[in-house]
Design brief:
Mean pLDDT: 81
Strand content: 5-15%
Distance between the termini: 19 Å
Number of helices: 15
Protein name: MobA/VirD2-like nuclease domain-containing protein
InterPro entries: Endonuclease_MobA/VirD2
Largest sheet: 5 strands, antiparallel
Structural class: alpha+beta
Low-confidence stretches: 420-465
Radius of gyration: 26 Å
Number of strands: 8
Strand order of the largest sheet: 1-3-4-2-8
Order of helices and strands: EHEHEEHHHHEEEHHHHHHHHHE
Shape: globular
């Protein structure tokens, strides 16, 4: 919540001296003109416009960053926040300390827990417009150093595991069309097609069979170098199909990473037999044991990634979203990715999980109807997600741990109340997890341990601060 806005730091050291004068009774009745004009002065001298360009360009010359402490952290004073602002600007390469000819900037404190920083990306001495280089990773590293020094909540490192979020234009367009944003839907479709396929051509064919538009990009040699995917009917004002490349959907959905995945898969000859829920449960139990007692020959990252395939397959057969698999798969998505977004190697257990996912998609569900077995499978999967979260947390992967916890909690909320108490049923006998030697856990199998979000963010905006 924004309240009591005040200037706490500025490029010239005047800091609170740049606080705008009040023009009325409201705390927001402020005379902003002098501050805005002073910030814009180097840009105006360089002949740059003071308004955002009308050609759709997003390369404005104002850099914006917000910094927030966690709710559990202590309140910092204005002097501490001013030091934080200067340290972030220096660490990100925006305004280095001791550089009098650097850009003009200002830090505004809107509330007790956060500040906003705006910098005009034009040097005062030369009038040269510049753009940050890898500013976000630098900003994250600087933020973590500040957190350690001040004893604040430590946030996760930037690890390239997050999927691309829909842009504002995508979201608004989808709302006008009365459907969800394209990017999350296309990401789910590409993941399903990747599980079914064995190579680029088959992958594109699967996407077309699912009702999407897809094309391969080939080099002069004819080799597939990339692909793009779009929703049927999603066109521009000029009538052109809207496409997204795989790398714009998620790090592990680029064509090179998909080819790496396909090269790892075992022999796929023969028909895909429909599995039973008991078979699936046994595979999941073995995966949990492998994550809990890591074997260097297995590779836990491979199991974690393949677990996402199983959840995707279960979600694809979760008609009407009544079982909660779709929600769990969406929440688990980031947990499945290794730092850097590279598809990890899989060992025997990871290969079993991938095979199970492929069979589930090909057969469109389980063999027979076994309500008790389905509940036991949910318990086993929730236990696996709990183990994955603990494993990720031990490696300081807060984002992935939180995602795995959230997925497990979703399954718990939807399913654990449905356990079949009838004597002789699989649920009454205990899940495969329990039969494998894990004690029955009262109440739930997954404990949600909230993780702090990365609090330092940045974005480029138009030229108006």
């Amino acid at each position: 919540m924004h309240r009591s806005p005040r200037v706490i730091a500025s490029w010239d050291g005047l800091d609170a001296g740049w606080q705008p004068e009040r023009t009325g009774p409201s705390e927001y009745d402020l005379q902003l003109g002098p501050l805005v004009d002073a910030l814009h002065a180097p840009a105006i001298a360089a002949g740059l416009p003071t308004r955002a360009p009308q050609n759709g360009s997003k390369r404005g010359y104002v850099w914006h960053c917000s910094a927030r402490v966690a709710a559990s952290d202590r309140t910092l004073d204005d002097g501490q926040w001013a030091d934080i602002a200067r340290e972030l600007l220096d660490g990100a390469g925006i305004a280095e300390r001791g550089d009098p000819g650097g850009p003009r900037w200002v830090a505004i404190r809107h509330a007790e827990d956060h500040i906003h920083i705006a910098a005009v990306l034009v040097r005062q001495d030369t009038g040269r417009r510049f753009w940050p280089h890898h500013d976000y990773p630098k900003l994250r590293a600087t933020a973590r150093a500040i957190e350690h020094r001040l004893g604040l909540t430590i946030t996760a490192v930037a690890d390239d595991t997050a999927a691309r979020r829909p842009g504002r234009g995508e979201t608004e367009k989808a709302a006008r069309q009365g459907r969800g944003p394209a990017r999350p839907e296309l990401r789910r479709a590409a993941h399903q097609a990747a599980i079914r396929a064995a190579g680029p051509e088959e992958f594109v064919a699967e996407l077309w069979a699912m009702g999407y538009r897809a094309e391969l990009r080939r080099g002069p040699s004819g080799d597939a170098l990339g692909y793009r995917i779009g929703r049927a009917g999603d066109i521009t004002a000029a009538g052109q199909q809207v496409f997204y490349s795989g790398s714009k959907l998620a790090p592990d959905l680029s064509l090179p990473q998909l080819c790496r995945r396909w090269a790892q898969n075992a022999d796929r000859s023969g028909p895909a037999e429909r599995p039973s829920s008991a078979e699936a449960e046994d595979v999941v139990v073995r995966a949990r044991v492998a994550v809990g007692t890591p074997d260097p020959q297995e590779g836990v990252d491979g199991i974690v990634h393949a677990t996402g395939d199983v959840l995707t397959a279960l979600a694809a057969n979760d008609r009407g979203h009544k079982q909660g698999w779709s929600d769990a798969a969406e929440r688990y998505e980031r947990a499945s990715r290794a730092p850097g977004g590279r598809v990890p190697d899989v060992g025997p257990v990871g290969a079993e999980l991938r095979s199970l996912a492929r069979r589930l998609l090909a057969a469109r569900g389980f063999r027979g109807k076994d309500a008790a077995g389905s509940v036991a499978l949910v318990i086993a999967v929730a236990g696996l997600l709990h183990e994955v979260a603990a494993w990720q947390r031990e490696r300081d992967r807060a984002h992935q741990a939180a995602a795995a916890d959230a997925a497990g909690a979703r399954l718990q909320a939807r399913h654990l109340a449905r356990r079949d108490p009838r004597p002789g049923s699989r649920a009454a006998q205990g899940s495969g997890r329990e039969r494998a030697g894990f004690p029955r856990e009262p109440g739930s199998t997954t404990q949600v341990v909230p993780e702090s979000e990365a609090r330092m963010t940045r974005r480029s905006t138009g030229p108006r601060p």
